[in-house]
Write a sequence for this structure.
């Protein structure tokens, strides 16, 4: 009997949870010579050896994932990162954030300019989180899934990065991701815990958009109003272009909203 889309995704998330547990144990004491630009991504088909080098951001060392963590290590040591194709400024920013988090006990808070905000911690869990594939559409792919710790609780936080300030599109994507995660609430709670060792409450969600500052430097009333209505925090960079940036600086653009109940 063929599986339904829901059954396939639930099975995939359960496998990712087991891989995440192994990754967390491995990274607690990585071997000598572990590269500072190496990142083990977890996806629906296993581990992928990924580059965090700003010149080849988020490019793979091997042509396909593996379910064996020792094999992914060999991909780092033997593989060659493929050449960068079209410019992808978002990936440059994403790789930078992941690298900072990995080097600071997974905490993204400082690097997004959120010191002094409602978040006690903002822990990186996963990137490129897929809610489907070409054979099981619709496909959604969240840039960064984090865990926000505040108000004596821990909640998922969706982070979308975009080098163009496309508010309407980003708000729709965040809403779609929230609906997908709610549908697979139990599996995602287990997966996030495996990544961060934190028990999360999926009754609330935080939502953050990260983009460059405007060329004019002006604050848009429309952005303020729509993000206030949706309780979405905007974080912008100190520069208006991410193409050649190697060391980012970010700060909140509007109010930093706490996680809000699922709607």
């Amino acid at each position: 009997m063929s599986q339904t889309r829901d059954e396939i995704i639930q099975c995939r998330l359960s496998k990712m949870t087991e891989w995440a547990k192994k990754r967390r144990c491995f990274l607690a004491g990585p071997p000598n010579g572990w590269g500072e630009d190496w990142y083990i991504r977890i996806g629906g088909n296993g581990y992928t050896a990924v580059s965090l080098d700003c010149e080849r951001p988020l490019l793979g060392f091997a042509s396909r994932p593996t379910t064996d963590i020792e094999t992914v290590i060999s991909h780092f040591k033997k593989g060659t990162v493929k050449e960068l194709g079209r410019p992808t400024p978002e990936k440059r920013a994403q790789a930078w954030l992941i690298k900072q988090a990995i080097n600071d006990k997974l905490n993204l808070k400082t690097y997004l300019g959120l010191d002094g905000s409602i978040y006690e911690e903002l822990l990186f869990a996963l990137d490129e989180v897929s809610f489907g594939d070409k054979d099981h559409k619709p496909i959604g792919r969240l840039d960064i899934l984090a865990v926000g710790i505040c108000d004596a609780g821990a909640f998922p936080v969706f982070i979308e990065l975009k080098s163009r300030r496309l508010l309407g599109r980003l708000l729709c994507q965040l809403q779609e991701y929230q609906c997908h995660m709610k549908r697979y609430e139990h599996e995602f709670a287990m997966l996030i815990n495996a990544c961060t060792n934190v028990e999360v409450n999926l009754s609330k969600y935080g939502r953050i958009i990260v983009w460059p500052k405007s060329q004019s430097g002006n604050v848009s009333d429309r952005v303020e109003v729509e993000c206030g209505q949706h309780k979405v925090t905007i974080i912008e960079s100190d520069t208006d272009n991410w193409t050649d940036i190697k060391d980012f600086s970010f700060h909140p653009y509007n109010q930093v909203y706490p996680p809000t109940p699922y709607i």
